[in-house]
Amino acid sequence: MPWHAVVGNRLAARLIGLVCGIRLTDLGPFRAARYDALAGLDLREETYGWPVEMIVKGARRGLRIAEVPVSYHPRIGSSKISGTLRGSVGAAWCILAGIVKYRFADGIKLDRTKRA
User: Rounded to an integer, what distance in angstroms lies between the CA atom of residue 74 and that of residue 20?
Assistant: First the structure.
């Protein structure tokens, strides 16, 4: 990943960790969830902020959040997101706005007893 994507990813993971009280190092591209748990999250985000919404809502509802290391291979060609200034800024904006939005969201109880 380009350096700015690595820095942004780590920053977002830290901020989400602070908001949710979980240990998170990455917003990695893969997710796995039971259907009932996923349906219960009532996900609405349709842009780059969906990983934030899923992680924050899941953590706040007491679901187990676990990171599993995966191999990363550079993609062939150029990314439309991290490969352009416009894409990078757009993604960063959606992710940071989502963190702020869900930090102050009403009706979502924070359960700090759950750890990844």
Answer: 31
Cα–Cα distance between 49 and 98 in angstroms, integer?
6
Amino acid making up residue 79: S
Residue 108 has a CB neighbour count (10 Å cut-off) of: 15
pLDDT tens for residues 9-56?
Answer: 888 999 998 888 888 988 877 888 999 999 999 999 888 888 889 999
Nearest to 48 by CA among 89, 11, 10, 16: 89
Radius of gyration of the chain (CA): 14
Flag whether pLDDT at 110 surpasses 60: no
Half-sphere exposure of 54 (CA within 13 A, CB side): 19
Contacts of 17 (CB under 8 A, 6+ apart): 23, 24
Q: Per-residue pLDDT tens for 58-90?
A: 998 999 988 888 877 777 777 767 777 788 888
Query: Count of residues for the chain?
Result: 116
